[in-house]
């Protein structure tokens, strides 16, 4: 019996559980977040119908180690993957970040005699000794010795790669794209699929900004979400000034982003209170911006804002080789800032007419902004008649609160179900005594009604390594992060054609070729695949499916 038929029947059975779980396609809600308890490790808790399987972990040796890049989740800059008793000395953790899943044929690796299969997961690494990053490929069909391939540590000019955050596949140019979230030192890099990969800095085209999320639409435009924290207020010292922007890159030649160039645009939002866009002048204090009535309006249910795309850089005028400060240009030319929007995703089934994005906001339980002024973040929806249109409408989809806060990455589980993960950070974990969660939203619901609530499908735990690191955080000589963080779910069938870009097809997790991945950053740096829980139901696949799972 085919795997997709069995699991489809299983999901139909789950849907009969009742209205409470209907929002989650029959997934049982996880009742509460895991607590943050000093010195105590806790496991991840998924909806009971789900399980996660390790596909790679930080201690795995790369099949082709090089210099300081020897492990999937650790540099070999220090001798210990875990600090010795009484010591803070520990190898730098690389924090594998956003995943990109592709089904490819004929891929090679470091071993010319080995068959690497057809299922691959690509990721950049968000951290590294001396700020150096690298790109890896998880070979999902491979044995442990060949499981993770190092693709590149340097660009085509011999420069060390920076630490990367976001990633996506751009099929028209046959390139992986990676973003760097580092303010005016950030940018976009493109990489070929071969090993070793040719990696090029294309920031002369895209500019240098605190880029994180990056997604293509059906016209080949790239939508980029920036994460640059703003200044704290003097009075409102637990809140941040809005300081990050939403960008769209419109290429002249989709087959060659570097040489072809294009226009970089910033999103501007029309104010309800005055003529022109919502902007903050350089003379405005952080306190003025934090408690601006415009900011309150943006975080108010039921208001719809007219939007426009403003061209801030054009390579036809300025060329393709000189990087530029995108954040500064966005401010100067009328872009509307948000409070750390980190990622965005197109809703499947809308022909790229609906773009949802997150806002992480202040990550402080004592923010003076509160929910009213976006202190706990939220989720927004940008609607356009066509993806290349220059005007549209912005609405608040979900307003963050104390229990649902600090939204980071997101993914569509189905056409109507959206999963957003939190990135509260150690301080907010301690303030709330709660680790991060992944929340599932039905985008057909009106969340201004208190009776409509998302469901928790994952309560992030804390592995033993992260528990040790959390206790060492802030001590002299310790350079790693503490509690674990969810990179965000990646739901894909791996189609490498333009028809396979995220948002082009309706996701069908566990049906046919659709797969779900996430990485638990920090600590042990583990990349998981989410699968149906075999202890809840026997999801028997056909021979090909079983063989693939056995090899993995």
Notes on the protein architecture:
The chain has helices at 3-15, 19-22, 203-206, 257-260, 286-290, 293-298, 315-318, 326-332, 425-432, 464-472, 543-551, and strands at 45-46, 50-57, 61-66, 69-71, 96-103, 119-125, 135-139, 148-152, 167-170, 175-180, 187-191, 199-201, 211-216, 222-226, 246-251, 262-269, 304-314, 344-346, 354-359, 378-383, 391-399, 407-412, 417-422, 437-442, 455-459, 485-486, 490-492, 515-521, 526-532. By secondary structure, it is α+β, with helices and mostly antiparallel strands. Strand 3 (61-66) and strand 4 form a beta hairpin.
Gross morphology: globular
Q: Total strand count, please? A: 29
Q: Report, as a whole number of angstroms, the end-to-end distance.
A: 21 Å
Main sheet specs: 9 strands, antiparallel
- Helix/strand/pairing category: alpha+beta
Share in β-strands = 25-35%
Query: Helicity, in percent?
Result: 10-25%
What's the Cα radius of gyration?
Answer: 22 Å
Low-confidence stretches: 1-22, 538-552
Strand order of the biggest β-sheet: 13-14-15-16-17-21-20-19-18
Count of helical regions = 11
Overall pLDDT confidence: 92
């Amino acid at each position: 019996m085919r795997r997709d038929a069995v699991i489809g029947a299983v999901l139909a059975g789950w849907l009969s559980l009742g209205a409470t779980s209907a929002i989650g396609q029959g997934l049982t809600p996880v009742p509460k977040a895991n607590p943050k308890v000093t010195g105590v490790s806790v496991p991840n808790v998924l909806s009971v119908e789900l399980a996660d399987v390790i596909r790679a972990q930080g201690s795995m040796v790369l099949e082709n180690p090089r210099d300081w890049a020897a492990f999937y989740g650790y540099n070999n800059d220090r001798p210990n993957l875990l600090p010795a008793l009484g010591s803070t000395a520990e190898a730098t953790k690389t924090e594998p970040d956003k995943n990109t899943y592709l089904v490819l044929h004929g891929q090679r690796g470091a071993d010319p005699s080995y068959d690497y299969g057809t299922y691959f997961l690509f990721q950049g690494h968000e951290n590294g000794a001396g700020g150096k990053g690298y790109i890896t490929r998880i070979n999902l069909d491979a044995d442990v010795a060949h499981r993770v391939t190092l693709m590149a540590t340097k660009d085509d000019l011999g420069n060390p790669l920076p630490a990367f955050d976001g990633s996506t596949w751009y099929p028209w140019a046959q390139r992986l794209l990676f973003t760097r979230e580092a303010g005016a030192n950030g940018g976009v890099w493109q990489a070929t699929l071969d090993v070793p990969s040719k990696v090029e800095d294309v920031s002369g085209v895209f500019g240098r900004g605190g880029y994180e999320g990056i997604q293509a639409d059906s016209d080949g435009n790239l939508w980029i979400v920036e994460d640059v924290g703003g200044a704290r207020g003097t009075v409102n010292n637990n809140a941040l000034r809005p300081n990050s922007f939403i960008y769209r890159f419109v290429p002249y030649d989709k087959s060659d982003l570097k040489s072809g160039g294009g226009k970089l645009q910033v999103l501007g939002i029309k104010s309800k209170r005055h003529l022109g866009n919502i902007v903050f002048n350089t003379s405005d204090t952080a306190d003025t911006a934090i408690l601006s009535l415009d900011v309150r309006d943006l975080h108010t249910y039921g208001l719809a804002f007219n939007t426009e795309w403003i061209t801030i850089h054009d390579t036809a005028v300025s060329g393709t080789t000189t990087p530029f400060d995108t954040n500064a240009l966005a401010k100067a030319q009328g872009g509307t800032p948000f409070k750390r929007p980190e990622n965005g995703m197109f809703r499947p089934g809308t022909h790229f007419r609906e773009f949802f994005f997150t806002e992480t906001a202040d990550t402080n339980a004592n923010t003076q902004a509160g929910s009213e002024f976006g202190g706990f973040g939220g989720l927004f929806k940008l609607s356009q008649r066509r993806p290349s249109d220059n005007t549209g409408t912005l609405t608040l989809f979900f307003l963050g609160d104390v229990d649902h806060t600090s939204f980071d990455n997101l993914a569509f589980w189905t056409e109507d179900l959206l999963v957003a993960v939190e990135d509260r950070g150690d301080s907010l974990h301690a303030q709330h005594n709660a680790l991060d969660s992944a929340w599932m939203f039905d985008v057909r619901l009106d969340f201004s009604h208190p009776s409509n609530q998302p469901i928790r499908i994952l309560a992030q735990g804390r592995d033993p390594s992260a528990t040790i690191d959390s206790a060492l955080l802030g001590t002299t000589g310790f350079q790693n992060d503490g509690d674990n963080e969810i990179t965000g779910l990646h739901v894909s069938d791996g189609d490498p054609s333009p028809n396979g870009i995220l948002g082009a097809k309706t996701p069908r997790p566990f049906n046919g070729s659709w797969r779900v991945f996430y990485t638990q950053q920090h600590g042990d740096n583990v990349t998981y695949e989410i699968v149906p829980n075999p202890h809840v139901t026997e999801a028997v696949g056909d021979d090909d499916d079983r063989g693939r799972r056995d090899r993995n």
